[in-house]
Design goal:
about 450 residues; alpha+beta; eleven-stranded mixed β-sheet; six-stranded antiparallel β-sheet; 13 helices; about 40% helix; about 20% strand; disordered C terminus
Length: about 450
């Protein structure tokens, strides 16, 4: 299917999406009208107060995270008092009931607008026919996902389907990559993992080395890679259907290299992402595992204000930026349709790394990000084939597929298109459909253009 420019896609969307655009505009207009009709001109002042309260709350959260002592105490008070003061003013004006009605209308407008902007058909990665493996070899981590291997009897079920299974010993460290290489040496024609994304990446690298299929069993905790492959994350035993009725996907892999390039240097594979900066610094702390919340609150002030931690520098394509607080480099870009700014990857075969950089200097920029739905001066989102992350320190913490590592600088990331052959069940839940980011200009243009087109075609 040929690529389409988003601006000329509206005439090809469905009738339901066209009416959704109209509904979004009507609901968006009705939200402030409810307050205006029942509160008069006073409601205009109250709306401004509401936005100011939201901005103050965002600023309070920023000050709470970036300061300690009495400033943090005052920030917490601001986060609590600001919204309460806004609600009290609405109650005094007799409009407290109108606030939830207006908010519901605004939520309806956002939901309808996103539906109108969504693609008419979800994109999917091409599937290729595959023969049943004769000697599949699976590695299973009994501790992953709170014991899913045992809960779903994955080892027994896999053996019943003819697979050789190695269940890792939780009491000693084992080299899963070496286990996979030995299995290939003994004739394995498929490698698979029931475990976390970090273990998936290590074994996937071996599958790439020998150009044999790789199978993902969603027995980890978060299962980001499995989700973006469209696998069943609720019942990992369904992933085993790939052994008997599977198809093959060709997906990209991210590669990461530490230090200056040299002949014979090793690139580490990542299936999801490599994170630098604040998050990577926090998870490296010995206290993080014992008390996550306290460790974060203790470390964030210095990290966000750049009083501690390495100062990063990033280059991607022709772009370069200095001093971001956090950088995420992902194997294919993450969609930004949810409130957190990250959701899932709709495709794993775009041939591009996703790069997300956060650089928030003050409370005003933090409030801007909140008020603009995760868009603002403090956030940079690009794609690139290669990314270089350097620092003013010879070694920096990096989170690679959830694994906390210390790597020499500079750190280079690149992507290799179609590097990994992934065997998945023919019938699987599929990748969650992307929620489109709001774009009111497109919603308005969609609704108005459709009105004119309908008039010119007898309402068709």
């Amino acid at each position: 299917m040929p690529c389409r420019n988003p601006d000329d896609a509206e005439p090809r969307v469905s009738r339901r999406q066209r009416w959704a655009a109209r509904l979004a505009l009507v609901a968006a207009l009705a939200a402030p009208v409810v307050l205006l009709v029942f509160g008069g001109l006073v409601s205009l002042v109250l709306m401004a107060v509401g936005w100011a309260g939201l901005a103050l709350t965002a600023a309070g959260v920023w000050w709470m995270l970036t300061h300690t002592g009495w400033i943090r105490v005052l920030a917490v008070l601001l986060v609590v008092v600001a919204p309460l003061a806004v609600l009290l003013m609405y109650a005094t004006a007799g409009l407290l009931w109108a606030v939830p009605v207006s908010l519901c209308l605004w939520a309806l407008a956002i939901a309808a607008g996103r539906h109108a902007l969504a693609e008419a058909t979800a994109s999917s990665m091409p599937e290729h026919s595959a023969v049943r493996p004769e000697r599949p070899f699976l590695i299973m981590n009994p501790r992953s996902g709170g014991g899913k291997v045992e809960k779903f009897r994955l080892a027994q079920r896999a053996r019943a389907l003819g697979a050789e299974v190695v269940v890792l010993d939780p009491d000693r460290r084992q080299d899963v990559a070496e286990l996979a290489r030995q299995a290939v040496g003994h004739g394995a024609d498929l490698l698979g993992v029931a475990g976390g994304d970090g273990t998936q990446a290590l074994v996937a690298a071996v599958a790439v080395e020998h150009d044999i299929p790789f199978m993902v069993i969603s027995a980890g905790t978060r299962n980001h890679f499995a989700m973006d492959l469209g696998l069943d994350r609720q019942d990992p035993s369904r992933c085993l259907e790939a052994l008997t009725d599977g198809v093959e996907l060709r997906v990209d892999l991210g590669f990461l290299h530490e230090g200056e390039p040299a002949d014979g240097s090793t690139w580490r594979v990542f299936v999801n992402s490599a994170s630098f900066g604040v998050y990577a610094e926090v998870v490296q702390s010995p206290a993080y595992r014992d008390d996550k919340a306290r460790t974060i609150l203790e470390m964030l002030p210095d990290l966000l204000s750049r009083a501690s931690g390495a100062r990063l520098g990033v280059r991607a394509n022709a772009l370069a930026w200095d001093g971001p607080q956090a950088v995420l480099v992902s194997n294919n870009p993450y969609q930004r349709g949810d409130s957190a700014g990250l959701g899932h990857r709709e495709r794993l075969d775009s041939g591009e790394l996703g790069v997300l950089s956060v650089d928030v200097a003050n409370a005003a920029e933090a409030a801007e990000l909140l008020l603009h739905g995760g868009q603002g001066r403090g956030l940079t989102v690009v794609t690139a084939r290669e990314v270089l992350v350097d620092a003013d320190s010879p070694v920096i913490p990096v989170g690679v597929d959830g694994e906390a590592l210390m790597l020499s600088t500079p750190v280079r990331c690149r992507i290799e298109s179609g590097a990994l052959r992934v065997r998945v069940p023919r019938h699987r839940p599929g990748v969650p459909r992307t929620v489109a980011p709001m774009d009111w200009r497109r919603v308005r243009r969609l609704a108005l253009t459709v009105g004119r087109a309908a008039a010119g075609h007898g309402g068709a």
